[in-house]
Each structure stands twice: as C-alpha cells, then as structure tokens.
C-alpha cells in the first residue's frame, strides 16, 4: 500500500525549455542556440521593421543575440524569455538608429519626373530601404502579431512610414501594435514611463495613419485571390521580357508609380511611367528574364538582365509590386544583386 501511495505522488517535471535555460546560464552555447532558435525569424523581422534594411537587421540580430548570451546569467525570469529577447533586440536597434541615417525611398527625396531620365546615376550616399524576403517571416502561430498581421507589418508602405518616425516612437508602435506588448511592458523595455509610451504611441499612430493606405496589401490579395495575383505577376514579367508596352500598360493603374532605388528619379502617372518603361527597361537595357517571388508580404519578381561577358542573364533587381484591385499601383525596383540575399533565387538564369 505504501509503495502504491509513493507511486502516485506527483513528480517535478522540468521542461526542455527550463533545462536548456539552466544549461545556457551555465555557459552551454548549444543550449542557448536551442532556446533562441524558435524566435530568430520573428526577431529578425522586428529588427528589419526597426531599421528598414535586411543587412542592418542581420547585424542587429547578431549583436542582440551576443548581448543576450552575455546577459543571460542576469535574466531573472520575471518576464518570459521571448519578452526579454525583444527587449534586448529593441535596445540594440535603438542604438543603431541613433547612429545611422533613416532609410529612404526615391519618393522621399523629391518630386516625380515627367519623362524618362536616361543615364540616371545611383546615389550611394543615401541609406536606401531594402526588400524583405517573405521566407524570413515566422510561421509560428503563437508569435506576433497583435493588431497587424505579420505580412502587413513588413509591407513596403508600412516599413517606409516607420522610417519617418523617431526611434522611440517606432519601437513603441511595433511592440504595442505588432507584437502585443502592454504599455507597461514597453515602458520597462525602453526604460521610461507608461505616460511616455502612450504619448509616443499617439504620435506614431498619427504619422502612420497619414501615410499608409487604409487597405493593406494582404486585404487586396485576399480579395483578388491567388490565381489572379499570379496572373498579374506573370503578365508583368511576360510583358517586360517580350518588350510589349501595351500589355504592360494594361496592368497598371492610372496613377501608377515606378521607383528604382538607388536611382533618385521616379515616375508617377501612366504617361510618365509608360515613357520610362518604353525607353529604359523595354528598350535600352537589353534582354530580361524574371522569376516570381514574394517580398514584404507582396508579390515580387527577381529580374535578370542579359550579361554578354557571362553568357547568361544575371541577377539585377528585385521588383516589388503593390496592387490596387487587380492592377499594379506601384513598382519598386530594388537594383543590385545584393538584394537577392535570402530570397532563395539563383544568381543567374539561362
């Protein structure tokens, strides 16, 4: 009887998480890697939203995880490990924001051009916004978001708007609206008061509401469906590969814009965009190949330009498409082979 009673006593169960946490505090690097692995992708996306650059996000995440590793013995467990990691990552990003220029798009620099500008020179002194591969987004249903869907929170319009907000307001908005932290938790993260957090949120929301379209790309894509979205992307790619201006124009809205960071000139309206498209990508650039992909929660294509020396089409740009209804309202062409990092696309195509 005594043996039976002993067998029914509850056993203390130590979870794998708690076990790894104890090992990591003791200096076990493998245990720390296992702890942070489920959060790496969402932390990287958070750093991208804060900084507007995938490469800056790479650096910030690496620095943040190093800080977390060194500071883990001081983690007291008063909050979840996830909350603590976001605190470390946010503070790391705020340090970087203070020392770097805000990320921009050509539309931030000046008015649009009425006709094609040939021989446009890249502006290397500008810190440009970069595209974000959808493959970097977390698929953990227990992770973010709160109000914004994950893909809404990396859409170009939203990330571009964030770059016009001071770092503390940017952090407060992301932690509250995207990640679901309370004002009190954010105050602890940013070492400030709840009143200051609420004030920062109010100012940040105003700027975002003034610059981000009410209809997100996720809503638009749900409305038109995957089939029509793929048809639009295929039509865009085919028209540019064939040099068919009429087919391209048929896919565009009347007020379409086209920009090409790191080039400063950009175009607004069907006439200006048609003039640019006819004289530059459809005429003077050469032969194209394009592969479909996704960036910033939006349809995109990897663009490859014929290179005579290489004897093949080489990676040239990532074109991110912003739709309104089933028409293209914005084309943002991120020029540079470095933008292909993380997209899983080949460096060249035949």
UniProtKB/TrEMBL annotation:
Residues annotated as signal peptide: none
Keyword Metal-binding: no
A Pfam match: Sigma70_r4_2
Domain SnoaL-like: 234-331
This protein's UniProt keywords: DNA-binding, Sigma factor, Transcription, Transcription regulation
Transcription regulation keyword on record: yes
Domain RNA polymerase sigma factor 70 region 4 type: 157-206
Coiled-coil regions listed in the entry: none
Domain RNA polymerase sigma-70 region as annotated: residue spans: 36-102
Gene3D superfamilies: 1.10.1740.10, 3.10.450.50, Winged helix-like DNA-binding domain superfamily/Winged helix DNA-binding domain
InterPro entries linked to this entry: NTF2-like_dom_sf, RNA_pol_sigma-70-like, RNA_pol_sigma-70_dom, RNA_pol_sigma-G_actinobac, RNA_pol_sigma70_r2, RNA_pol_sigma70_r4_t2, RNA_pol_sigma_r2, RNA_pol_sigma_r3/r4-like
Transmembrane segments: none
Alphabetical GO biological process terms: DNA-templated transcription initiation
Molecular-function GO terms, alphabetical: DNA binding; sigma factor activity
Oligomer and partners: Interacts transiently with the RNA polymerase catalytic core formed by RpoA, RpoB, RpoC and RpoZ (2 alpha, 1 beta, 1 beta' and 1 omega subunit) to form the RNA polymerase holoenzyme that can initiate transcription.
UniProt record similarity statement: Belongs to the sigma-70 factor family. ECF subfamily.
Record protein name field: Sigma-70 family RNA polymerase sigma factor
